[in-house]
Amino acid sequence: MNAARGLPAIFVASGGALAAARFGADLHERATGCLSKAVTPLEFSGMRVRSGTAVLMLSASGRHPDAWMAARVAVANGYDTAALLTFRRASDLPEPLTRINLDVISLPSIPGREGFLATSSMLALATVLARAYLPVSTGLPEMLDLLKQRLEIVLGPKCVALVGPGHASAGFDLETRMCELGISQVQVTDYRNFAHGRHSGFNRNLKSTSVVAFIAEPFRDLAATVFRNRAQEGRKVRGWGGKRRCLPVSFVMQHGIENHEEFAHAGGER
After folding, report:
1. Do 125 and 155 lie in a common domain?
2. Using CB atoms within 10 A as the burial measure, which of 23, 41, 51, 73 is most buried?
3. Cα–Cα distance measured from residue 109 to residue 264, given in angstroms and rounded to the nearest whole number
4. CA 227 to chain centre
């Protein structure tokens, strides 16, 4: 990780881990001032950026062929730094990865057996990235405050996830989980981009569309304006807030989501 600090970085992942990759890219830019990007393995295979760039691949088990493809591309294209972040030891990785000269960062295995959504792996990856990039003096909470509550969150068949700078990873995590479960089709966009035409289509689908907004202090007034306008249209607005840092895990999945119309917003600095 230290070797990548002075370089632009590409974070590569698939499925649920892509949100962690986006989180890592945001942290890398904030901590180093260097450009960073999160991509899928297929997108990575078509990139032509090589020299002076670091690559970090995220894969819980390394079993998926997409992880193998990304590793082969990283080594073949000669990136300055290429590493795999995984919950497996290097010696336990699938044979296609052991044949590649790749740096492996092995994390402690997740206790117990994960379910289909693998939210524990997602949270663990995000925590490790936060520890790697945030100052040592920055403490992380032992428990995310909102996980201590039982939240009665309901979403319609369509959903808009509104994010600000640094929140896109949380929005993409929500989109992934809702899509995987078939609960809601989520579109992720930022507050300002929402006003560039998307609000028009939103107004045509009011009865079937919910909004989940990720809010931080610098953008709280902007978010309030969005919700105030929606409330004037007769939509129900409900929210909860918090001031602690929040890792990009779709904590709403811990409490269950039903298909009904409603607005909800989530607070947190990150």
Report:
1. no
2. 23
3. 34
4. 24
| Whether this model's pTM surpasses 0.90 | no
Q: Are residues 152 and 262 in the same domain?
A: yes
In this prediction, residue 212 has a pLDDT band, given cuts at 50, 70 and 90, of confident
Statement to judge: residues 150 and 263 lie in one domain: yes
pLDDT at 235 over 80: no
Token pair belonging to 101: 């000269």
Q: Does 201 or 34 have the greater pLDDT score?
A: 34
Q: Is residue 117 located within the same domain as residue 194?
A: no
pLDDT at 34 over 80: yes
Query: Range of 112's domain?
Result: 6-133
185 and 77 both lie in a single domain: no
Band the pLDDT of 25: cuts 50, 70, 90.
very high
Domain boundary among 72, 101, 133: 133
Q: Which of 10-19, 183-192, 205-214 has the highest mean pLDDT?
A: 10-19
Number of domains in the chain: 2
Digit-coded pLDDT (tens) for 88-112: 888 888 887 877 778 888 888 877 7
